[in-house]
Specification:
about 40% strand; mainly beta; single chain; 10 Kd Chaperonin, Protein Cpn10, Chain O
């Protein structure tokens, strides 16, 4: 199945963070992570020519509990369908 976002929507793949440790070496549990933002990589963008994003960009997105993206499963991949207004920032390397 192929998903093509429409208008000002973006299809992105969530980037899983590595295990986080304190400076003392203690591994932090999932419950200690911030649920306010999600880091993702853009897979496809809608046809709106005004979008500043392109395929391959890394972005920060509002979490679903804050009105952010809709999670979509395609095969084994978990993708996010995001409105442009829910993109908080582009991560530049």
């Amino acid at each position: 199945m192929k998903i093509k976002p429409l208008g000002r929507r973006i299809l992105a793949k969530k980037i899983e963070e590595e295990q986080r440790k304190t400076s003392g070496g203690i591994v932090l549990p999932e419950s200690a992570k911030s649920d306010k933002v999600i880091r993702a990589k853009v897979v496809a963008v809608g046809a709106d020519e005004k979008l500043e994003l392109k395929k391959g960009d890394e972005i920060l997105v509002s979490a679903p509990s804050f009105g952010g993206p809709v999670e979509v499963e395609v095969g084994e991949d978990k993708l996010l369908l995001v409105l442009e207004k829910d993109v908080l920032a582009i991560i530049e390397s």
